[in-house]
């Protein structure tokens, strides 16, 4: 009976590996001023790519460990040891012996003195779309090969003598134009100049028809470096097709994407295609690659800035009709949520939304968590079991990672919601401001324990289903015919769960009925957008050509008397 504890101790003793220490610094040649930020130490067991590009939620992820630095001076070493929080191994003490490629990176923070009186340190977007791996100005070391040996006491020195370069701005073309404006509303909130940008796809014949004025379509989504999915040239017939996409079990996807972009150009310039403006917005924040297009206590009035500053300026410069009946919204995932949210929060400013695979549109199904009823986001409520909640799956239901995995990766990348990733941006958008000036956590990032007071705030301010139920008498007459939602029933992130609940409500609406559409793709994964005729890897590339005919029909049936339905139909 006493052998079991002894055996357990022996087993534990065999798994106590070396606890290496790393000393990380940067030279004065990279900065002669002290720097703030998140210092990341990344270990990879292969050199297929730099370690910084191998951190993800999937099974093949490599390891990252993070520590905050404040006023770090050039030449001053930072010791990264077993106390640094890591993913997927919690501590450097848990790293197995073996050969690794190691890289250090400093994700730089800047100080913001906001209008609400809070002073916070956050990573300013620098043209990359809030990506710590490539953000210009981030310092990093060259990857070096090391061996972690449990028999040796190790102290490894790394120097961050490299720096990510600036990202050049995209150039205008005949059809694609770029604008950038300083937002008065956002600059006032953040206490410094803040900007909004847009890539605008002009219709064929724009210059030849100077009297035409056009409907406007906002294609919401993640940070666009340029207008995506549009190319005036076909792909090179000799283009390499050896690239493999595991998700689609497909080789040569880059060439398929390039061909679809050229096909869109040919449709766009064809004789009978609708003549409209399509806009992709750049609105990165210090928390993410975009703002979620709504007003937020932590991020400022992005909804108002986009709707009342940026969009009118686009319409002024590019001859938009400039009225709500001639504006439309569509997008997928983040863009799907934004399209529906902007339609709900600004019902008079837009005439329809097409929301594909939207991020959770009710927090009763916040992916697999009900934040109003569940006590813990990471594990099913149980007095005895610890059953983890799944975070990502494939179309057969095979789980790729858990909710805890995803959140602990973010915690390694940044404390106080500063990872620049998915769960942290939802929190930044939906939460009240905490006493420290950062978003008040919806749950304990380490343990998953949910804060019901924060959940109540989310419900009243950003739960789109709750808002529609609560305010249908007022919103319903303004939204009838405008709501269209599409989702695969095997969405990788369980986003269909919230869509089911929304559909249940919309189907029973009265005075008025919603007169829209909710549709599902059988066994379809993330990014399914309502096209039953094509596989997901094709339909996800055709948002514009899929929704513009629907928008044209909506325009013809809903435009007010005397509306301009002719100048842009050439």
TrEMBL record:
<dbReference type="GO" id="GO:0016787">
    <property type="term" value="F:hydrolase activity"/>
</dbReference>
<keyword id="KW-0378">Hydrolase</keyword>
<feature type="signal peptide">
    <location>
        <begin position="1"/>
        <end position="18"/>
    </location>
</feature>
<dbReference type="InterPro" id="IPR029058">
    <property type="entry name" value="AB_hydrolase_fold"/>
</dbReference>
<protein>
    <submittedName>
        <fullName>Alpha/beta hydrolase-fold protein</fullName>
    </submittedName>
</protein>
<keyword id="KW-0732">Signal</keyword>
<dbReference type="InterPro" id="IPR050583">
    <property type="entry name" value="Mycobacterial_A85_antigen"/>
</dbReference>
């Amino acid at each position: 009976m006493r052998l079991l504890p002894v055996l357990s101790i022996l087993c534990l003793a065999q798994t106590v590996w070396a606890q290496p220490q790393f000393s990380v610094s940067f030279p004065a040649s990279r900065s002669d001023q002290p720097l703030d930020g998140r210092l990341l130490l990344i270990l990879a067991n292969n050199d297929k790519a730099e370690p910084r590009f191998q951190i993800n939620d999937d099974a093949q992820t490599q390891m990252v460990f993070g520590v905050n630095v404040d006023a770090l001076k050039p030449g001053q070493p930072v010791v990264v040891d077993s106390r640094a929080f890591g993913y997927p191994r919690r501590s450097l003490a848990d790293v197995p012996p073996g050969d690794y490629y190691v890289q250090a990176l400093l994700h730089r923070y800047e100080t913001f003195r906001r209008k609400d009186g809070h002073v916070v340190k956050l990573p300013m977007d620098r043209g990359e779309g809030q990506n710590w791996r490539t953000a210009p100005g981030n310092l990093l070391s060259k990857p070096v090969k090391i061996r972690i040996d449990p028999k040796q006491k190790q102290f490894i020195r790394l120097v961050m003598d490299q720096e990510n370069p600036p990202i050049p701005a995209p150039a205008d073309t005949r059809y694609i134009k770029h604008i950038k404006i300083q937002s008065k509303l956002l600059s006032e909130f953040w206490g410094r100049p803040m900007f909004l940008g847009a890539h605008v796809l002009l219709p064929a014949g724009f210059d030849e028809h100077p009297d035409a004025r056009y409907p406007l379509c906002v294609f919401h989504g993640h940070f666009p470096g340029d207008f995506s999915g549009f190319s005036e040239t076909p792909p090179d017939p000799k283009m390499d097709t050896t690239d493999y996409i595991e998700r689609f079990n497909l080789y040569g996807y880059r060439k398929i994407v390039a061909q679809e972009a050229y096909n869109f150009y040919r449709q766009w310039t064809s004789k009978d295609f609708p003549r409209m403006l399509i806009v992709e917005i750049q609105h990165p924040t210090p928390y993410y690659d975009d703002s979620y297009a709504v007003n937020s206590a932590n991020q400022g009035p992005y909804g108002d800035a986009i709707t009342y500053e940026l969009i009118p300026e686009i319409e002024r410069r590019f001859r938009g009709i400039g009225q709500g009946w001639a504006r439309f919204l569509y997008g997928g995932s983040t863009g799907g949520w934004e399209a529906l949210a902007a339609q709900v929060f600004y019902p008079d400013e837009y005439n329809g939304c097409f929301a594909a695979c939207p991020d959770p549109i009710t927090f009763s199904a916040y992916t697999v968590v009900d934040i109003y009823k569940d006590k813990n986001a990471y594990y099913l409520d149980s007095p005895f079991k610890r059953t983890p909640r799944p975070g990502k799956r494939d179309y057969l239901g095979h789980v790729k990672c858990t909710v805890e995995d995803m959140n602990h990766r973010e915690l390694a990348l940044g404390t106080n919601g500063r990872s620049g990733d998915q769960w942290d941006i939802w929190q930044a958008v939906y939460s009240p401001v905490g006493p420290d000036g950062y978003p008040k956590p919806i749950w304990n990032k380490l343990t998953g324990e949910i804060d019901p007071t924060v959940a109540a705030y989310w419900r009243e301010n950003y739960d789109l289903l709750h808002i529609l139920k609560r305010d249908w008498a007022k919103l319903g007459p303004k939204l009838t015919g405008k709501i269209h939602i599409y989702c695969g029933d095997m969405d990788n992130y369980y986003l269909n769960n919230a869509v089911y609940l929304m559909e249940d409500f919309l189907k029973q609406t009265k005075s008025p009925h919603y007169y829209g559409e909710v549709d599902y793709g059988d066994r379809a994964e993330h990014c399914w957008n309502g096209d039953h005729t094509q596989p997901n890897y094709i339909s996800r590339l055709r948002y514009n050509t899929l929704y513009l005919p629907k928008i044209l029909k909506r325009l013809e049936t809903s435009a007010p008397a005397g509306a301009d339905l002719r100048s842009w139909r050439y």
